[in-house]
Each structure stands twice: as structure tokens, then as C-alpha cells.
Amino acid sequence: MKRDGIVKGKFISFEGPDGAGKTTALNKVVTDLTPVLKDKLVVTREPGGNRISEAIRHIILDRKNTEMDDRTEALLYAAARRQHIVETIQPALDENKLVLCDRYIDSSVAYQGAGRQIGTTEVYQMNLFATGGLLPNLTIYFDVPSEVGLQRIMTHRTDEINRLDVEQLSFHQRVRKSYLEIAKAQPQRIKVIDATKSKDQVVQDVEKIIYAANQEFFN
User: Which residues are annotated as a binding site for ATP?
Assistant: First the structure.
């Protein structure tokens, strides 16, 4: 909303199982929105977004780190997220910018809580502590069957396959199931996109949601 002509910052996260195409869609959305929003648009990712968080990302996703404990993995994601908020997200929101983030808390709940089976409630509570309770104003969830997502990865991302991509199908099915449960429980925040559609249609659907929920940035 606007206060005395000033637009309040907004935070949008992009979520989805591996192979859903969310990053591809995000990149196209950024291309379309940048000429309109210019320096009011901030684009970032998790884990990552700054030097410390990117260093943690490398440790988490490195395929050589097969001995990493599941709870260690969850804690590292939360640590990277905390630094991301302090150094990148919150400053942008304080400057009344629109922040688009590739993954956030829902990823940890789905991947570590459900996928790794260490507890969705426990992972969620840990991340609320790490983030100080900061949740996105809007989350766009890209839904695709696990089998389809994994096939896309093996076909199109052979040079970028990370430690989570190579998990068994059952792992990815638990991740998707958890995402859908989160979306059902929080329909006001989370909007579901059918990611089996064409890339152009998916991007069109995403941009329609973003424009409708953030009209103050486009007036």
C-alpha cells in the first residue's frame, strides 16, 4: 500500500519441487518487470543472496558431501536464511522495494521436514526462530508431478544436478505432498500454478498474480 506517496516493501517467494521450472519462470518475470520497476525490484535466491549465504549454499549442495547429517542440512539452510534476511531481504523491504526470492521457508519444511522426514513442525519452528517470523506477503508455488520434474532435470539440467536432485523418487514425492499440504493450509499466502503448462502460459499466470497482488508498484 501507499503511505504519503511511498510504496511499502513487499516480499514474494517462488517455490516448487525440483524440475517445476520456477527459476526459468522467475528469470522471465524479472526480464519483464525490470523495465517497469527498475531499482525497486530486488531478485535473490536461497540458499544464497550474499557472500556468507552463498558459501553455505556451496556446502549444502555439493554432491561430494554425502555424509552430511539431515539435521545438519536443515540447520545450514536456516543459518543461510538468517544471514540472507539480515543482509539482503530486510534492507530491501525497508527501502520499500519488491523482493522476489527463489525459495524460502516452505522449501525447508518440504525438503528437510518431509523429504528427510525429520519433522515439518520442528523445521518450521526452527526457521521461525531463524527468520524472526518474517514470512512472504505472497508465495507462488509451481506444482508438477515428481516423475515429470525429475525427467526434466535429467533432460535439461545435466550439468547442474545437485545433492538433492539425485534423491530417490519417494523423497521427491514426499516433498511435493508437503508443498501441497502447506498450500492448502495457507491459501491466502500461497497461490498454486500448474507448472505442466507451457512456459509462456506459466509466466503469464505468474505475472497476473504478481500484478494483482502488488498494484501499488505498477500505478
Answer: 16-23
How many other β-carbons are positioned within 10 Å of the β-carbon of residue 12? 22
pLDDT score for 163 = 57
pLDDT, tens digit, 9 for 90 and up, residues 50-90: 999 999 999 999 989 989 999 999 999 999 999 999 999 99
Mean pLDDT of 122-127: 98
8 A C-beta contact, residue 128 and residue 1: no
* Domains of the chain with CATH codes: 2-217 (3.40.50.300)
pLDDT digits (tens, 9 = 90+) for 131-146: 999 999 999 999 999 9
Mark the binding-site residues, compressed into ranges.
16-23
Say how far apart CA 55 and CA 32 lie, in whole Å: 30
Assign 139 to helix, strand or coil: strand
The most distant pair of C-alpha atoms in the chain lies apart, rounded to whole Å, by 54
- Looking only at the bridges linking them, the beta strands covering 138-143 and 190-194 are parallel
Q: What value, to the nearest 5°, has the Cα angle with vertex 137 and ends 136 and 141?
A: 65
Distance CA 195, CA 145 (A): 9
Q: What is the pLDDT of residues 28-56, one digit of tens each?
A: 999 999 999 999 999 999 999 999 999 99
H-assigned helices in the chain: 22-37, 51-61, 70-84, 90-94, 105-108, 120-131, 146-156, 169-185, 199-213
Q: How do the residues of the chain divide into helix, strand and coil, expressed in percent and rounded to 5?
A: 55, 15, 30
